[in-house]
């Protein structure tokens, strides 16, 4: 069996000091996460983060910069994740859109609220991304190149 990391994307959205999260059902109970998911075949990372945000929040996401790339091995399922976290804005809410299976609702939380609920975050990547965002970390979208075949 060949080992392979899971490529995922996440949307970091801040509005007036609150961050967009989703509450979702997991095998460890309900947890909070940024809108996030797996990269699918034949899509770019930016297409993936736009799609995942729409599917999980019913908002249109526009990426403005790359926050960072995060490498993490999940201790409960022994899976390695490479998370590409994008900063951006949401607009155009689509209230009739059915959210992805397992997504309970969208939630806006301050960084302090998230810190106080650290044990309810889906992974340590959630708060790490918020702390990096608050420290001003930003990279241009052009830092990642998608080569057409």
What this model shows, in words?
The chain is 20% helix and 41% strand. The chain has 149 residues and is an alpha+beta fold. It has one domain (6-143): Nucleoside Triphosphate Pyrophosphohydrolase (Alpha-Beta Complex). Strands 1, 2, 3, 4, 5, 6 and 7 form a 7-stranded mixed sheet that branches. β5 and β6 form a beta hairpin.
Describe what is shown at a glance:
The chain is α+β, with helices and mostly antiparallel strands. It has three helices and seven strands. Strands 1, 2, 3, 4, 5, 6 and 7 form a seven-stranded mixed β-sheet that branches.
- Determine the CATH topology: Nucleoside Triphosphate Pyrophosphohydrolase
Q: What's the CATH architecture?
A: Alpha-Beta Complex
Number of domains: 1
Largest sheet, described in full?
A: 7 strands, mixed
The coarse overall form would be: globular
Q: Given the structure, what is the number of helices?
A: 3
**Low-confidence sequence ranges:** none
Secondary structure category: alpha+beta
The CATH superfamily label reads Nucleoside Triphosphate Pyrophosphohydrolase
The end-to-end span amounts to: 27 Å
CATH class: Alpha Beta
Radius of gyration over all CA atoms, rounded? 15 Å
Instruction: State the helicity in percent bands.
Output: 10-25%
Number of strands: 7
Strand content: 35-45%
Mean pLDDT: 94
* Secondary-structure element pattern, one letter each: EEEEHEEEHH
